[in-house]
Amino acid sequence: MKRLKRSSVFLLGICLLAAVTTPSADAVYNYRHGFSIPLYTGSESGEMAWDEQLASQVGSDTIRITLSWDGYQTGVNQYNQSALDNIVYRVQAARKASPNPFYPRALISFELPAEPVPWMQAAGYGLKNVASEAQYRRYYPTTKAGAEAYGRAMAKALKYLYSVQIADFIETPNEPNLTNGPSDPVPPEQIGTLAAYGIYWAAVEGMNLSTETAPAFLVGAVSAGQSDNLAEVKEHSYGNKSPAEYYFDVQWWTNYILHQATSQADADWLNKTWRASFHAYPRLGRAEEWSCQEIVTKNKQGIWEYYRQDERGDQTGETANVTVEERLLPLLEKLNENRKWWVTETGMTSYKYDPPGIESWEHCEQRRAEGGGSYGKTQQKEFYAKFGWFQEYLRTHPPAGQPWWARFEGVTFFLGHDTPDRESGLPITHPAPPWAGFGAYWGFTDEIYSSFKNWSCAGMYCPKPAATYFQNNY
Question: CATH for 10-279, among 1.10.10, 3.90.120, 3.20.20, 3.40.1350?
């Protein structure tokens, strides 16, 4: 088998790194930190999305944005450079709002096609999907030719974006283990195979992956599930697997395919370079039918209770962090020795409400239009503030017992829209509930500002306490 060259771009990497600065050494946390930009933002024409600007304005060093495989590769060994140029434009535009001219950098989520692409099928890529409850379809390659093509495109995209100091990381498709997630699930063996060929082709392309500051592949994007009931989590996970079982299979297949693709020594080396990535959220309550619906349910004593959606789930930032930690633990226990890892989606909504009694519909709509009430905004800030439990755990527990805490490398908080409608002033939330309120800002237009006199700022976008905390401490 072909033996790979490990140092062909080493000197180039050193030169590039010498030209950039790193995030402030005064920051409270020393891991990468930023925001995950939802799929609906940005445009193929390169129009700037406000999400990137706002994420940069508060000092993010990382923004997670999506690039689709079929949007970048247009034929066998044919690639659409404008798709990469669009990412360059978005990141450079975001940096204009950043306190650091060299950050943020992109973390690319390399997504699969939403339909069977004719030229890919003709090329023998064998695209197929798993029927699921997901809102969107997603097709993955089932042949070696298809998996290698995805991997090579992934490697080429990262190589270019890293060379122009735009991106340091690229990630496998989003939440592939969920059958009721945003897109169809993907079998773990396919995710591992796609990742392995991406890593392999990066080495073939001459990328140096072995230093602390080298670019890297994030593998998994595995969701820890939104329930504490393991049977329920497995029911909505591919193959009735727990998130930990699914990730273990991904990890095994990545290692296996690397050993099939190259020599033993090179495979062992390459297998040490990639990171794991996970998603974990607090208890959100149940999914909403509409923003301020009234929920009627019996408590354990058989007494009827009345709620709004925002009164359910984890009510405080502290309890939300405990939930996130507990949901991550089974996944972390499956990590291979010395594997670094990321949380590429987490967060807490600012719409949480702690009322003295049932909230009126009108008050709920007003509160949501303002990005949440003071209670919810404060608790969202507390969630950000307490996310340092990774390092607190290291201070209070011997690393030898659970060494994965020392290998935590980055987090991107979910950034959702909180934008009132221009005409009515009522909130437009993207994506659909229960993910509303996750943004660090809420926005409005000057035209409707007069109808909300109690808003705390008169600009186009208003920071929540979470944004201020992030800016001052990360």
Answer: 3.20.20
